[in-house]
Amino acid sequence: MKSLQDSVGNLKGVGKKRVADLATLGIDTIEDLLTYYPSRYNDLRPADLTTAKDKQKITLHGRVVSEPLLTHFGYRRSRLSFRLQVDQEVVMVTFFNQPYLVKQLQLDSQVTVLGKWDARRRQVTANRLTTAALEASNDFGAVYPVNKHVKQGMLRSLIRQAYEEYQNVIPTLLPQTLRQRYRLLDRRQMLAGMHFPKDAGQAQTARRTAAYEEFFLFQLRLQAIRQAQRQEDGLRILYHNDEVKEFIRGIGFELTNAQKRVVNEICADLRRPYQMNRLLQGDVGSGKTIVAAIAIYATITAGYQAALMAPTEILAAQHAEKLAKVFENTPVHIGLLTGSLTAKQHAQLRDAIKRGDVNLIIGTHALIQEDVEYANLGLAITDEQHRFGVNQRQQLREKGDHPDVLAMTATPIPRTLAITAYGEMDVSVIDELPAGRKPIKTKWFKVDKQNEALHFLREQLAAGAQAYVVSPLIEESEALDVQNATDLYEQLAKYFGGDYQVGLLHGRMSGDEKDQVMREFQEKKLQVLVSTTVIEVGVDNPNATVMIIYNADRFGLAQLHQLRGRVGRGDRQSYCLLLADPKTDEGKARMQTMVETNDGFKVAEKDLELRGSGDVLGNKQSGLPDFKVGDPVGDIKMLQIARNDAEQLLKTPHWDDVDDNQPLVLYLKRHQLETHFD
Ligand code: ADP
Ligand code: MG
Questions:
Q1: Which residue's alpha carbon is at the smallest distance from atom 9 of ligand 1?
Q2: Ligand 1: which of 261, 286, 561 to mutate, judged by most atoms within 8 Å of the beta carbon?
Q3: Residue 426 and residue 266: Cα distance in Å, rounded?
C-alpha cells in the first residue's frame, strides 16, 4: 500500500545518492517532495502584445531586426538596445547594465526576452535574454529553490513522477466544512495547481489553499500541544461579575468594542484554574491601561494581590498616579515600589505587601528582581512588554503560586507574528481607537527647513498647545544624548526668548528631578519639553499636541511610532514633525511610512518589510516557524482565521470521530509526537 510517508527512495531513479541529495533540501518522504513548493513561476508563454498591459512582466519571442546598439555612460553603466519583430509588430528592447549580452545578439537571429512592458511607448525594459527558442514553451513554469546537490530539472521531474504515482493516495487534511466555507481545493488539486498550473490564476488558487492548510495545521499542532500542557496548577480568581460590571460603569467613558472583547478574554482566563499567559497588544492610545485596571479590580475584589511592572520609574509613577484616581473609593490599595524610596520606606512597603495590606503593587522590574514577598499574588501585569526579556517574563510567572500573567505591549509586532513569536502565549488585540480621536498629522521636513517647523510650533503654542521635542539619539552614548538634549534645550529656550517656557528631561536626572519636570509639564507651567527618548513610553499629557523629532532618521520605525504616540491623546488635532535628511532609500521609506500611516500595525508591517523579518525577531531561537507558502506578514488575516478555526475544531466534541477527519487525526498524532521528542 502506497503512502505519502514512503521514502523518496521508492521513486524510479532515486538511489542512495539521490536520497542523500534530496535530504539536503529537507526532502525525505513523498509528502516532503510534494509539499516542496515552487518559490515562483516563470511565465514563458509569449505575450500577446495586443492585450498586454502597461508595466506587465512579459515574455517576447521574435527576430532581431536592427543592429544592437551599446552605449556606455557613467561608471559601469550601459544601455543595450535593438528592435525586435514580434509577429506583425516591431518593438524596442532595452537592457541596462548587461553589456556582455551584445555578443549573443545578431541581426536576424531569433531570441526570447523577459521584461517589463511599456504599453505607451511599445517597448520592453528587459532583464533576461535567451537565444534557445526552446525556453519559450507553453509552460507556466514552476521554479524551485534548489542547491548544488539538486538541480531544477531533476526536482521537477521527480515531483511530476511522485504526483503521477501517488495522486490516488493523497488524503485531504482540511475538514470539509472549512474547505467549503473558504472554497478551498482538495489536497490533490491543490498540489497539482502548485506544481503544474496552466496560468497565474490556477497557481494563485492553489497557493491560497496551500497557505491556509499550512497555517491551519501549524495552529492545530500548537494548540493541541498547549492544551495538553495546560495542567490545573493555576489560581482560580473568582471575582463577582456584578461588582466588576459596576466598576466598569463607573469609569466615565464607554469601552470600545475591542476593549470589551479583550476584557472578556482576560476575565475568562482569570476564572480558569490554570495560569493565564496572555499578551495584550494595542496601539499607543488604544486604552490598554483601563483594560488592565479592570483585570486588577477583578483580581483584588476576589481576594488576591496584583502587581504592575513598568519599564521606567517615570512610567511606574504615572501609572500609580492615574490608577489612584481610577481606584478611588475601592478596596484597591496601591503601593509604589521604586528605587527612589528611602531604605526605611522600602522596608515598610515590603512589609505591607507581605501582610497583604497593599494589594496593588506598582513598580519597575525591581518588583521581581528584588526579594519582594507577596501575601497572595494573583495577577502580574507587565506594561510595554517588549522592554522585558524572556527571563524576566519567566521569573514573573514563577512568583508565588503561579499568578496569572498579562503582558501589555504597544510594540507593533504584527499580531500574527506575535501569535508565532510568543507561541507560548494567548494574544488579545485592541484594534480600535476610542471614538473621536483625530489621526495625528505627520510632516517630514528636511533639516534646512527647520525654521518652518519651529515657526509652526510657535503658532501652535500661541493657540495653547504643548509640545515635546525629541533630541537626536546617539547610539551607545548616553552622555552624548544628554549633551544633545541640553544643547537643544538651550537653543530652544533662546529661540522662544521667554515667550514660552521650555523644560528638559533626560536619563541622567534623578527620579525627583524627572518627577518635578513632568509635573510642571502636566500643570502647563512648561509649554515645551525637550527630551531624550526617555519619554518614549507611556507618558500621557492630552494637552501635548505637537511632537518634533530631531534626526528622525536615526530612529527605527517602531520607535518613531512609539514616540508619536505621546501626542494625539486628546480631542485636539495633533502633529508630528520629523526633521531628517535620510541618506539611504530605506531611511527615506521610513519617513514616508510615518507620513502615510498612523496605524501601528501597518507601520510594523512596513518595518518588517524594510528590515526583513529575521531582524525583527532577532534570531531563529524565537521559534518562529518557517512557513513554506504562507507569508505571516502578507497573509495576516488568513493566519488569524486559521488560528480561530483550529481552536474551534479542537473545542468541538468528537471531531476526531468524523470519518472525513481521520487523515487530520493521523497527521496530528504524527506531529505531536515529533514535537515532544525535539
Ligand atoms: P495605551 O496604554 O494603550 O497607550 P491608555 O490606556 O494610556 O492607552 O489610554 C489613552 C487615553 O485614552 C487615556 O487618557 C484613557 O483614559 C483614554 N481612554 C481609554 N479608553 C477609552 C475609551 N473607551 N473611550 C474614551 N477614552 C478612553
Ligand atoms: Mg500604556
A1: 287
A2: 286
A3: 10
